[in-house]
Amino acid sequence: MARTAFVTGASGFVGANVVRALLAENWHVRALVRGRADSLDGLPLDRVAGDLFTPSLADAMRGCDAVFHLAAHYSLWHRDRADLERTNVAGTRSVLAAARAARVPRVVHTSSVAAIGVRGDGRPADETYQSPPAALVGAYKRSKYFAEAEARAAVAAGQDVVIVNPTTPVGPWDAKPTPTGEIFVRFLTRRMPAYVDTGLNLVDVAEVAAGHLAAYALGTTGERYILGNENRTLRSLLEQLAALTGLPAPRLRLPRFIPLAYAALGEFVLAPVGFRPDVSYESVRMAKQTMYYDASKATEALAVPHRPLAPALSAAVMWFREHGYAAGAAPPGG
């Protein structure tokens, strides 16, 4: 008999890939959606209209074998602090309560390495490391930290919750797009004349999706698992995109104070008088950090094999082009 999964955030970047992974493993999926959810079109699943605070949420979860809680608000804009708190923290509390009321055996909570923070010495952080909340850059990271605290509190009260912490996924269905997807779009549309010296951990979004299923099957209650792969500089990513697309990589490296001043001017001085800034202050502050992580725990405990990044990068480029994000850009290899 097929197992049933209730998925929040099913139409998001990681969520859309988790749904496809579940369906490939013959799960029946109930997807909580708001609006059209175009990324789920044509998939054999049940759509549940609502949000994280819908009173009938527990009823919709009844009979499910697992809840995959991926819904989150991602924003690095100062103006969105209240929405981040409500969706990411209070929303997680609501979903966990509904899963308890529905007697769902296990919840996989999608946190983020944002909740873990970064080491001051630049070395990769693992699951045992934790930045103090006050040291986490921006309201988004702090909201993910406190959302994870909600999951830990639920575990302490006897609920079966496993936590996964994706790094920086790349691949298809990044519809918003995420900040990393925005790098792809800017690169493809020749709107990235320069770059900043930063580092991040990249992972195929399909690997992240597989990690969610593995966390359900093999994860230990209350444990966190970093779902990541390669630690890379931003420059090396741009050079690989150049090799894949035939487009030139930016060569100008900006001193960090230049984008920081530009972002601060746009968000705090010009935005209040009607200007629409294109770079958030927190995103530049975040780029000042080297965001490297050690994902060996998930590789060993969850048996999640690493996938090469090149196919994921190519798939992301193709998806953005096919969906109109990079109209007019040269074709791959052109």
- Strand content bin: 15-25%
Number of continuous helical runs: 11
Question: What do we call the CATH topology of the domain at 4-172 and 202-230 and 292-307?
Answer: Rossmann fold
The tally of strands reads: 13
Overview of the molecule:
The radius of gyration is 20 Å and the shape is globular. The protein has a domain of 214 residues: 3-Layer(aba) Sandwich (Rossmann fold), CATH 3.40.50.720. The chain has 334 residues and is an alpha/beta fold. It has a seven-stranded parallel sheet, sandwiched between helices. Strands 7, 9, 11 and 13 form a four-stranded mixed sheet that branches. The chain has a two-stranded parallel sheet with strand order 8-12. The chain has eleven helices and 13 strands. Helix 1 links the parallel strand 1 and strand 2.
Explain the layout of strands and helices:
Elements: E1 4-8, H1 13-24, E2 28-33, E3 46-49, H2 57-61, E4 66-69, H3 81-101, E5 106-110, H4 138-156, E6 161-166, E7 168-170, H5 179-188, E8 194-195, E9 199-204, H6 205-218, E10 224-227, E11 230-233, H7 234-245, E12 252-253, H8 257-270, H9 281-287, E13 290-291, H10 296-301, H11 309-322
Helix pairs in contact: 1-6, 3-4, 5-11, 7-11, 8-9
Brief synopsis:
With 334 residues, the chain is of the alpha/beta class.
Kindly list the characteristics that best describe this protein.
334 residues; Rossmann fold; 7-stranded parallel β-sheet; 4-stranded mixed β-sheet; globular
